[in-house]
Amino acid sequence: MIDTLVQAYSPLILWVGLGLLIWRWLPKDLSHWLGRGLYWFGVPWQIFDLARHSKLSGDIGLAPVITIATLGFGLLMAWVTLQILARLPEKVTEDAPFWQRWASQLPRFASAEYGSFIIAAMLGNTGFVGLGLLPAIINPQDYSWAVFFSLTQNLIGTYGIGVLIASYYGQTHSDHSPWTLLRDLLTVPSLWAFAIGYSTRSVEFPAPIELFSQSSLLFVVPASFLLMGIRLGLLEGWSSLRKALVPVMLKIILLPGLVGIGTSLLGLSGDARLALVLMSGMPSAFASLILAEEYDMDRDLAASSIAISTIGLLLMIPVWLWIF
Known about the structure:
mainly alpha
C-alpha cells in the first residue's frame, strides 16, 4: 500500500504545492484560461485516449447506474442533513442532556447557503483529480469504471442536477429553458471525445497520432493539479471552514462508504469496486464555485468545501485502500 500511495500522492503534492507557491506571481487570468483549456481540450484529450484503449468489461454498464444512484444519495443526504440541522435547538440550558448541548454547537445554514451545501456534498472533482490520481492506483483493465463514473457525473450531475439546484437556490433568477439545458448537455466536449474515441477503437491511426493520443497523461495530469494549487491559493472562503466540515464529511466519508457497501452487495469486487468508491469520494468539484458565481450562491462555503475536501482526500484514500 505504501508504494501505491507514494506513486499516487507524489504528482498531486508536487504540482498542487507548486501552484500554491507561484500563484501570487502569475497573471490573474491564467487560472481562468488554464481551466478552460483543460475543459475544452485537456480532459477531452485524456478521455479520448482512455475510450480507445481501456478494456471494457462485460458489466461496465453498471457504472452509469451506480453513478446516478450515488448522485441521488448525495442529494438526499445533503437535504436530510439540512432539515435536521434546521430543527435542532440553538440554545439550551446548562443542565440539558449532553447530546442537546452538543447539537446546539453544530453550525446552522441559511437558505441562501443550501445550494452550495448540496452541490458540495453531491458533486466531486472526478475529472481533474479523479482521472489524474486513479491511474497510479487502479489496474488499466478496470480504469474504464472511473471514466464512466466521471462522464456520467459531469453529464447528469454537474450539467444537469447541479444546474437545476443552483438555479433553484441561487439568488439570480435567469430563464433556463429546457432547450438551453439540452444545448449545454449536447456541447459537453468530454462526451463527444468519449464517443469519438470509443467508435474508433478498431481504427489504426498513424504512429505519430497514436503517440500523441497516448501522451495525454504527461500533460493533462500536471496541468490539472497545478490548476488546483492555483485555485486553492486564490480562495477567499476561509471564514466558512467550520460550516464546510459538514458537507465535506458527507462527501468524502459517508457517500463513498455507502457506495462501497452497495457495490459489494451487487457482486463487484477488486479494482472495479475500488474505482467507484474512490471516484465517489473525490473532493468537492470546482464546478461548485463556477455555479456559485453564475447563480449567486454562497461562494465562501463552496470555496472552503473544496479546500477541506482536497486535504481530506489524502487522509481517506489509505482508508478505502485498506477496506476495499
